[in-house]
Amino acid sequence: MRRIYLDHAATTPTRPEVVKAMLPFFSDAFGNPSSIYFYGQEAKGAVEEVRTRVAELIGARSEEIIFTSGGTEADNYALKGAAYANERKGNHIITTSIEHNAVLEVCKFLEGRGFKITRLPVDEHGLVDPDDVKRAITDKTIIISVMHANNEVGTIEPVEEIGKIAREAGVCFHSDAVQTVGHIPVSVDELKVDLLAISAHKFYGPKGVGALYVRKGTNLVPLMHGGGQEKRRRAGTENIPAIVGLGKAVELAGQEMGKEAERQAYLRDKLIKGLLEKIDHARLNGHPTRRLPNNVNVIVDFVEGESLLLSLDSEGICASTGSACSSASPEPSHVLLALGLPAEQAHGSLRFTLGRENTDSDVERVLEVLPGIVARLRAMSPLLKTQK
Ligand code: PLP
């Protein structure tokens, strides 16, 4: 069966060029970058080259990049690191109700240890209002954390405006850019962020590696203590093959991002238009225009998202419902609830996220099979019968 993968917000296939770049760093260039002899310096050179590449992609300086084990660690380090570094100044953190759990759960953890958390609401499209951020700031506010784009509904947040507000108030500003770096242009200076989280496996790099951008002068208490790696900011022998893979993914994204975003946005719009035309009682979630080029998220009334997923899977189509990272959970998505959807509608959401290998024929295949699946499931649905 031809399989069509449409869940690139969950993860992407590691590109062959990336794997090829990584391979020599397992057994040939295997050195520990902390060693002063040839092998160590060879590995160190590779790491520093990637640091420069990552910095260039986001308009930062190489010394402002710290390698991590992925987006989750970058978010944890940013929030816990900044919270404990600033606890004498205050204990108030502002975030939003639609963040990834890598931010929300850290906030919950900090809340249990005396920090006060304000979780801002969003409008029906998932947009945070910068004025809400401004109003929420107090003299105890030490961190503002707003994601660059939402992983479920694809809404791109007004991070630049919020960054301006944070800077004027002198508050450290973190943004989770896991869904944007490598896909759309990200400039730390334009966004006015002090901390920014990156994950390689969302843009065709390997899993388990990412980076945290830390603006010069931003104080963080380290998450990992041990050796003096990463200028004492993140202890532990570096995962050289993974870092090299991140570097190759960054290089390729830098070359292809613009063209690819345009191509995927065309497929996205074709899929959205087709779904809304062919399926009644279906609506788009997220912002109609301020959205990621690869994100399609729709509500299909009177059916369960899980049933849609299973039926699509039996046709070889991989998609997701709710948050990809927690799609095994039966709870409705916290993001869709924050958009104001009732729980039963949030259960009927379907997310397709396009990628490099998807073509027109993949979109056509979804449009060919999904209306029949919905009709079959609705025929069995008690939800629809009560509506009639
Ligand atoms: N933040 C966002 C917005 C995400 O979408 C994800 C992954 O789904 C993460 C953080 C976690 O990143 P990682 O899987 O690299 O830990």
Features of this protein?
388 residues, alpha/beta, Aspartate Aminotransferase, domain 2, 3-stranded antiparallel beta sheet, 15 helices
General description of the model:
The structure is a single chain. The protein has 388 residues and is of the alpha/beta class. It folds into two domains: 4-10 and 257-387, Aspartate Aminotransferase, domain 1 (Alpha-Beta Complex), CATH 3.90.1150.10; 16-252, 3-Layer(aba) Sandwich (Aspartate Aminotransferase, domain 2), CATH 3.40.640. The chain is 43% helix and 13% strand. The chain has 15 helices and twelve strands. The protein has helices spanning 16-22, 24-27, 38-58, 71-85, 101-111, 130-136, 159-169, 188-191, 229-232, 240-278, 305-314, 334-338, 343-346, 360-379, 382-387, and strands spanning 4-5, 65-68, 92-96, 116-120, 141-145, 172-176, 195-199, 210-214, 282-284, 295-300, 317-318, 349-353. Strands 2-8-7-6-5-3-4 form a seven-stranded mixed beta sheet, with helices on both faces. Helix 3 packs parallel to helix 10 and helix 11 (305-314) packs across helix 14. The two termini are 38 Å apart. The chain binds pyridoxal-5'-phosphate.
